[in-house]
Amino acid sequence: MAGRNDNAAIAAALQAMAQAVGQEPNVGGNDGVRMLETFLRNHPPTFKGRYDLDGAQTWLKEVERIFRVMQCNEAQMVHFGMHMLAEKTDDWWVSTRLLLENGAEGVTWAVFRREFLSRNFPKDVRGKKEIEFLELKQGDMSVTKYAAKFVVLVKFYLHYNVETT
Questions:
Q1: What is the pLDDT of residues 35-54, one digit of tens each?
Q2: Interatomic CA distance for residues 91 and 85, integer angstroms
Q3: Are 159 and 94 in contact (CB under 8 A)?
């Protein structure tokens, strides 16, 4: 009978070893690296900071879509978002981040988003887009074209969509 117990113990030990070998140890923050790799596999756009109103909005929309799918936490959203900034925008963020970190305000995604939009989509331009929305008339446009124009402009109307503030 002792042989059966020995075999069972050996089998349990082998199974435990197989499970341990199959799992990579979490040394040096492998989870963060894996999350970044997953984020990058979703092909997030890079934002270079060229004057492009729709580009800033589109960039935010795309990276936030990936964040939702990946269920990123606040810190991951800030770090992954920063990772996708390039050229002038990256230079701007390095200095802005230092100012924020030295001040009383922490760097959350909401803070990043607010600062990003204020730089890349200024209030006066948003105001002009809001007026364009408020003055939108169908005129000789087809219903389809009018509806498409409405959808494009409604995101700039603060009372309709608070997300753009």
A1: 999 999 999 999 987 666 67
A2: 9
A3: no
